[in-house]
Amino acid sequence: MLVTLSGFILNYVVTPASVHDIKVIYELLEGCKQSVILGDLGYLSSELKKDLEQQGYHLWTPFRQNMAGAEEHNNWKVMTMRRTIETRFSELCRLFDIEHTLARSLAGLQLRIEEIILAHNLRYFEMN
């Protein structure tokens, strides 16, 4: 899911759990005008970072705790911003029960997810 720092959901991609995050990042970033991207550990890849830099993006991912320089790199201010997306996932589950859509088809699932994201984003505008 691609979310602004203020919490507006820009884009999402649904994949089976077996698909690695790196395989769908280009689809997720399609049409994205943000140049700085904060990712989670699923996007930790020097090759991916270099490739995205060539496309005009700056990808920041936290280091694993056992990596050299992790304490300095994993700045608490940036980690706080990173938490924004986790909060959106929690809200989608808590407020809209996105994990239990009761969809009977792939098209029904996609429609339900888009309805939930629309409702979330409308709620976002109401609050801001």
UniProtKB/TrEMBL annotation:
One of its GO terms (molecular function) is DNA binding. GO terms for biological process: DNA transposition. It comes from the Bacteria. Residues 4-122 form the Transposase IS4-like domain. This is Transposase IS4 family protein.
